[in-house]
Design goal:
Layout lengths: L1 E5 L6 H15 L3 E6 L13 E5 L13 H15 L4 E5 L1 H17 L6 E5 L2 H4 L8 H10 L2 E4 L2 H10 L6 E3 L15 H7 L5 E6 L8 H14 L2 E6 L5 H11 L5 E5 L4 H5 L4 E4 L8 H8 L4 E4 L4 H4 L6 E4 L4 H12 L2 H16 L3 H20 L1
Parallel strand pairs: 1-2, 1-4, 2-3, 4-5, 5-6, 6-7, 8-9, 8-11, 9-10, 11-12, 12-13
The structure holds ligand GMT.
The site of ligand GMT has 21 residues, from helix 1 and helix 4.
Length: 377
Amino acid sequence: MNIGIVCYPTFGGSGVVATELGKALAKQGHKVHFISYQQPARLDVFNENLFYHEVMISMYPLFDFPPYETALTSKLVDVVQFEKLDLLHVHYAIPHASAAILAKHILRQKGVNIPVITTLHGTDITLVGKDKTFEPVVTYSINESDIVTTVSESLKKDTYQYFDIQNSIEVVHNFIDFDRFNKMKKDHFRKAIAPLNEHIIAHTSNFRKVKRVEDVMHIFCKILETTPSKLLMIGDGPERAPAEQLCRELGTCDHVRFLGKQEAIEEILSVCDLFLLTSENESFGLAALEAMACEVPVISTNAGGIPEVNIDGVTGFLSEVGDVASMSANALKLLNDKALLKQFKSNALKQAKRFDIKNILPQYLALYEKALAMQQA
Ligand code: GMT
């Protein structure tokens, strides 16, 4: 197939899922064309089947805001025709789904039929999308898409709850590539971070409000009262500076490292004992899955789709959002019981295997086939 993928080029979340999906499709021999405003962060390999088309915006003094959606739509019209794409798979509703739907309508007038598959990722529904600034356009784009998928059952439920959706929605869970994510032997790294063999705890996110990174800091402070540990804060975003300030106020700075954005996250996760995910909302929690694939149990909230990934009492523990006391107690329960921690590490890997890309890729391919068959009917 000749597939167009529209996504954000960013380090985490939907951008990573879209890029890893495209790379896997290319490995299977499909031609994959990425369309974005920047080279996707994980598009870091050469493969003869991978292509990248950059959306450029010509600015004009009249524009207070760059008209990205218009530029993206025009680019889609151009790439679909020139590259003879079979379908468009757009990740994240705003503005990718609406741009794709407009491109589809323009192309129809030119005698070209292009199916649009829209994958909803989370904040495009639960946070930004349902705001009335965007809601009518999001609703329209979902209903006009040929196929709609969500990354969890929870997000499917939310989509039906917040929007007037007539279309059916398929759940295709996020996935992990075990060729990349697996526990590696990194003893030298472990020693450098935790010279006295302290436990190593990690948190990865884009440091936005929804992640409640302040809860991570408080949980770690509680752990440190009794259990020698180190905390690795990976990623960057608006809440990083307040988190660093809080670390000073709590007096934990000697044991916390803010690592910023990291490419080889699997190497860091390989030396960790526990992962903290304190989000207020999380449609899936890809960060938790990445940790679990590296045999790291997860202490998390029970928000959104997290319970579909992290199984309470098996691969980690779940608590109510904001219940720092419960999450601290759960973390300590695992850290202070060697046998239990070992068991949870192995359970985490077993559960992560359910989301092996080898199981998920065929689900997307089946939906592509369905979209193409609908087009011909
Ligand atoms: O986590 C974020 O804020 C980024 C966001 C995105 O759209 O890139 O992540 C969402 O999509 C990920 C990939 O499908 C999911 O694993 C995250 O749970 C989801 N984030 C939220 O729902 C907050």
